Structure formats: structure tokens, C-alpha cells
Amino acid sequence: MADNLDEMGRFAEPALLILTSLASGSKHGYAMIKDIEQLSGTKLGPGTLYGALARLEQDGYIAPLPFEERRRPYRLTELGRTLLEKQLTNMQNFALAGLARLGLIRL
Q: Residue 11: which CATH number?
């Protein structure tokens, strides 16, 4: 199981987008695609989405819920929430350091 998204290689960005989408509640694939596009401007293709979902489920960061008609929703697990919080905090610290170096804020 990966301790951070860096170990997920090329799946890191889609994984972060998926975890962030699921932080607001369970969703099925199409709803995640739409939410991620609205949230970040990134449109994930079905292959990218479902590949990342499989990896996140395998690593225990998300869990499938019972089918709703033909759609399978997923939810964020506690482990996934912890990973997302860690990654977003790291990104926030990096962004703040960058803004400080630009002279836009003082730390």
C-alpha cells in the first residue's frame, strides 16, 4: 500500500482528483468525471478514471458501494481521507512557500 501519491507514478494526479471528488460524498464514475471537470478543469477519460479507481480500491483508499441500477458508486475510506489530507497539506505548504518567494505573502 502506498503511503503517498508519489508512489503511484503516473496515476498520482488522477488519484488526487478522484479522492478530492469523493471527499464531498460517494459518487459513481460519470458523476466523478463531471465533478472533477468542474472542480479542476481536467476531463478524465473513462480508461484513466477506471484504472485509477481500481488502483485506489486495491490500495484501500476507496471502497465500492452496492450498485445503483447499473452504476457502481465509490466512497472515500478513512485511509483515503488521511492520504488526501496529507497530500493537500503538502501542496498547500508548497504553494505558500512559492507565494512567499514571489513576495506576494510573508510567512
A: 1.10.10.10
Range of the domain at 22: 5-101
Q: Is residue 106 part of a domain?
A: no
Q: Would you say residue 12 lies in a domain?
A: yes
Mean pLDDT (the chain) is 91
pTM (2 d.p.): 0.85
Task: For the beta carbon of residue 34, count every other beta carbon within 10 angstroms.
Answer: 13
CA gap 40, 18 in Å, rounded:
11
CA distance 101 to 82: 29
Does residue 40 form part of some domain?
yes
Helix axes 12-22, 29-40, angle to 10 degrees: 100
Q: How many CB atoms lie within 10 A of CB 82?
A: 13
Counting as low any pLDDT under 50, the low residues of the chain are 9-11
Number of domain units in the chain: 1
